[in-house]
Amino acid sequence: MNIKDYILITRPINCLMAAIAVIIGGYISGANVFQTIIASISAFLITAAGNVINDVFDVEIDRINKPYKPLVKGTIRIGSAKIFSYILFSIGILLSMFLKVYNLLMAIFNSLLLVIYSYKIKRIGGIYKNITISYLVSSTFIYGGLLGESVERTFILALLAFLSNNSREIIKDIEDVKADISMTLPKIYGIDMSLKISNIFLVSAILLSPLPLILNILSNLYILGLIPTILSFILSMIFKNIIIKKTLVKIGMLFGLIAFILGSM
């Protein structure tokens, strides 16, 4: 068994970002530190499980676009990957039982949605696919916020994450348009229109980005991460190359997460 491939298939960077989002949500809502840590581990594992099961259902697509993935290379068997994802889901949900009941319900709901997304929703395509995955990404802030007394403070962070992630998901669909078997936005409306829709989401995120300061949710340190976030988003709308666009949006989202971290200090 190749441990490295089992780690890679979970996409640990994405899982870490989910865990950090939970910690930020917990912190700004005034949650208990121990419970916040448990919640972040729970989110990490559920996100990992979702990434694994997604690769299981995407094997044929990845044979064309991403032949380097473990399931395509055959270094991990599909049956083993399924069992691995079930274990990760189970532990993640089990940990949520030590939190508030709303956390448990969200953990179960998000876990089911991750499976349904990989099995059905992404095959349906359209905006449903993008909205689903963006909800899952943004809900991590609320998952942490549910532990405290001020969960409403996490809603604006979730909204900003939702908008920017929608943009990135559309760009990823453009990148995969030739191999994608579902009716994604680029297949329905074309690449040019899809890019315009992607830009609308980014511009919305940029315009709403000062709200955490205006509403006194985050401190002035938020600006230090916000500036490179906005610059990355603007550059992504200027460059024509899809890979560069996708990378710049991801960099912007990473800086956005850093901005949230700095602002919560």
Radius of gyration, whole Å: 18 Å
What profile does the largest beta sheet have? none
Summarize the helix and strand pattern as letters: HHHHHHHHHHHHHH
How many helices?
14
Number of E-type strands: 0
The CATH architecture is Orthogonal Bundle
Describe it.
It is built from 14 helices and no strands. Helices cover 79% and strands 0% of the residues. Helix 9 packs antiparallel against helix 11. The protein has one domain: Tetracycline Repressor, domain 2 (Orthogonal Bundle), CATH 1.10.357. The protein is an all-alpha fold and 265 residues long.
How would you summarize the topology of this molecule?
Blueprint: H1 3-8, H2 12-28, H3 33-57, H4 59-65, H5 70-73, H6 78-96, H7 101-124, H8 126-145, H9 155-175, H10 185-189, H11 191-208, H12 211-214, H13 222-238, H14 242-263
Helix pairs in contact: 2-3, 2-8, 2-14, 3-6, 3-7, 6-7, 7-8, 8-9, 9-11, 9-14, 11-13, 13-14
Record keyword descriptors for this entry.
single chain, 265 residues, mainly alpha, Tetracycline Repressor, domain 2, globular
Summarize the structure.
The chain has helices at residues 3-8, 12-28, 33-57, 59-65, 70-73, 78-96, 101-124, 126-145, 155-175, 185-189, 191-208, 211-214, 222-238, 242-263.
